[in-house]
Amino acid sequence: LAWCLKNPFVSTVITGASRVEQVHENMKAAEVAPKLTQEIMDKIDAIFDVKKDEDDD
Questions:
Q1: CA angle, residues 31, 37, 40, in degrees to nearest 5
Q2: Distance of CA 57 to the CA centre of its chain
Q3: For residue 55, is pLDDT > 60?
Q4: What is the DSSP letter of 9?
Q5: What phi and psi, each to the nearest 5 degrees, are found at residue 51?
Q6: How far apart are CA 31 and CA 5, in angstroms?
Q7: Position 37 in a domain
Q8: Structural domain includes residue 52
Q9: Which helix (H) or strand (E) is 22 found in, with range?
């Protein structure tokens, strides 16, 4: 979730939860996102082979 929040190509993050505890866990992503450096984001992108060109479909 933190990667989604930090990613400029993700316009909306929609989460689901069936228990209050899950909502609390999901909200922790807001605390983690600012800690994701560009280096970390690049490593995550490489793992998932993320294309950074908006024209790639």
A1: 105
A2: 20
A3: no
A4: T
A5: -90, 130
A6: 10
A7: yes
A8: no
A9: helix 20-27
Please give the structure tokens belonging to residue 31.
């605390």
What residue numbers bound the domain in which 28 lies? 2-47
pTM (two decimals): 0.71
Of the pLDDT bands very low, low, confident and very high (cuts 50, 70, 90), residue 54 is low
Number of domains the chain is built from: 1
Residue 56 lies in a domain: no
Distance CA 45, CA 6 (A): 12
pLDDT, one tens digit per residue, over 5-15 is 999 989 999 99
What are the Cα distances from residue 52, in Å, to 3, 26, 43, 44? Answer: 14, 25, 13, 12
**Residue entry with tokens 């807001």:** 30
